[in-house]
Amino acid sequence: MKMIVTHPGSAHRDDFLACCILVAKYWLPIQRREATEADLADPGILVVDTGGEYDQERGNFDHHQFPSDHPPICALSLVLKFLGVYEDARNFYEWLEPTEWFDSRGPHVTAEWLGVPRALLNRISSPIDVSLLRRFAQRRELRSGDVIWEMMLMIGEDLLLYLKSLRSRLDFIAEHAQFLKVTSGNKSLSVLYLPRTETMSDDPSSSVGRFIEQQGETVDGVIYPDRRGSGYGLGRYEDCARLDFTRISAEHDVHFAHVRGFVAKTSATDLERLLALVKKAWIDLE
Predict the structure, then answer these.
(1) The total number of structural domains that make up the chain
(2) In a domain, 107, yes or no
(3) How far is the first Cα of the chain from the last one, in angstroms, to the nearest whole number?
(4) Cα angle 281, 284, 286; round to 5
(5) Region 125-132 average pLDDT
(6) pLDDT of 198 higher than 90
(7) What is the DSSP string of 54-81?
(8) Same domain as 254, residue 224
(9) Are residues 25 and 47 in the same domain?
């Protein structure tokens, strides 16, 4: 790999982030100019968001030649496909699909698709985005040691690390988690239980919500290893109103219960005891 070539002039989120990821993957310099036929023919030159060609084997990632009715896609999407992480990115980056729409359909159609007023897009615009994109657009060439290039390297590394670490945590949860029922008569609560294991990845509980969402399960509460101690955390899922953990604050093995009732921490490790605490926090048993 020799370099990244992307178009001059104004920069957008898709071409900027596509370059960030390629910088993190290959540590290449960037030239902001129009791509030549020689660039397009050379697989060692990665051409991003310009050149009128999408060809992974030749390292060309433009989407502007696609027909107007093509599903929304952008240069960032094509680079993620090239690296084999597009499906995970679509699942884990909530901002990716709106980025595809915005770049290929424009702000008005995107606002309509999102079901929000067009003016709202300006109201939530980040000054961080504005500054980075403006400074990136001003440069003709960027390479290692340049402040903007180094910032792009960090952004790209974080984007790729997030995908890798989240996939690892989800795989761990899928291997160890259990969906359990807490019952009383004809009533029941659904709980996801994630046991503590010797091979436990770094804070897998942070990805429990995504795992439940992917599984399509109906869940009221979660039981997960407390990363600050040897016990467990007990929590509502999606702020389930059926659970109020202030109800167990006086239990001998509960050392913390949030005053708003959405989470508690316990030194208990026995599953039967953990389920009993969840049952005691169950509001509609009264």
Answers:
(1) 2
(2) yes
(3) 67
(4) 90
(5) 92
(6) no
(7) EEGGGTEE--TTS-TTSPS--HHHHHHH
(8) yes
(9) yes
CB 85 within 8 A of CB 74: no
| Tens digit of each residue's pLDDT (9 = 90 or more) over 142-175 | 999 999 999 999 999 999 999 998 888 888 899 9
- Euclidean distance between CA atoms 144 and 254, whole angstroms: 52
Residue 183 lies in domain: 177-285
Domain match, 215 and 93 both: no
Give the model's pLDDT for residue 264: 96
pLDDT number for residue 285: 61
Closest CA to 239 of 257, 226, 221: 221
pLDDT band for 286, please (50, 70, 90 cuts): low
Q: Would residue 68 count as lying in a domain?
A: yes
225 near 260, Cβ under 8 Å? no
Question: Domain check: are 253 and 161 in the same one?
Answer: no
Angle between helices 127-138 and 147-176 (to 10 degrees): 130
